[in-house]
Please model this.
Amino acid sequence: MASSDISAARRNFLRLLAATPLASAVGVPAVLEALQQAKPLAKKKAAAPAAALAPKDNLITAASEAVDVMDFEAVARKNLLPAHWAYMATGVDDDATIKANHEGFSRYQLRMRPLVDFSRLDMSIQLLGRKWSTPIVLCPVASQKGFHTEGEKGTAKAARAKGHLMCLSNQTSTSVEDVNAARGEPVWFQLYARPDFASTTQIVKRAEAAGCPVLVWTVDLLGGSNRETLRRGEGPLSVRAPFCKECHEGRVQPMAQGLASVGNLERGAGPTVFTWDYIKRLRDVTNMKLFVKGIQTGEDAELGVKAGLDGLWVSNHGGRAGESLRPTIDSLPEVAAAVSGKIPIICDSGVRHGTDIFKALALGATAVGVGRPQVWSLAAFGQEGVEAMLDILRRELMMTMRQAGATSIDKITRASLIDRLRIG
Model:
């Protein structure tokens, strides 16, 4: 628009404004002065999907006020440092897989079945010979003290209070021993294998010595990830370096204490090559049950079964690994078909409601994990927030089961769903 057009438009706007109640209340001169002092609007830049999730007005002030898990998100964003928020919120590239993960659940419609006696509804599951009161699992989430001072202890206490399975991140900001004490029993332990197997072995043996019954090896980040939202949230390197130095320098992650340097590679042979053969190497150094996390195809599910895994974890790391644009709920059916009930399957990424959990169970998951809602609720209200988040999901799942006429988890089957892409 030409400058003359802009000036004409401004004059017309001011004439209209002069006749408004605002001008009558504060006076036209005051309005004109405010307009003259106002800075021109900068050209709006395209926002990354995560950045578009701006805090909303009227934030909840107590965990008990949350209606659904999304109510915790805005409070968490308000509470967190920008770089810490970006670390949690980031996906890769344009963050499109984050969006796809949740939107993927809308592919499936629920077949509601009323007039079923649900007076004795049973939400419990059996997983590796252990009974859990619900199929809801707290996913491994790194560096939880960066989100709340209670950190992993707060999450563990919430898991204890509500009776949920918790998997602890290799990148925990609290030692596995302290987390187990807070949980009241050993948690599962997630592993990022290091380039040198000697250091990996140290971590594995420490988790086993702490009593952890299951080792969950994460494989979906072995190729790296392009986390643009994180880099933008951290700001320019000149600003980021001093801040991160003050915040993090000198702090060794608990599970990295006492480990040999990554550069100290075994036998001088170079970094470890990670293939399916690595399963045997892990088996040779631990008696813990072994899951692999990050499986997304039927082919890899078959290889996992052949490798003797005790379970698979269907995940794309919440959209933080590769920009596949494929939601895990779409990966789950082919994984379940390949496994054919031989070993249990946990599924995560994009879960926000009890209906999402129900759909994952119907498509073959044994249990369903929650990641970001766990962080939002922790960052918002600590342990109390995580407990409230678990209560919400549990209540929503129970309601969905009642509506669908599924009185126990084993009655949630593919027959409970309609695939919208296959209608007609």
Remarks:
- The two ends are 50 Å apart (CA to CA).
- The chain has 16 helices and twelve strands.
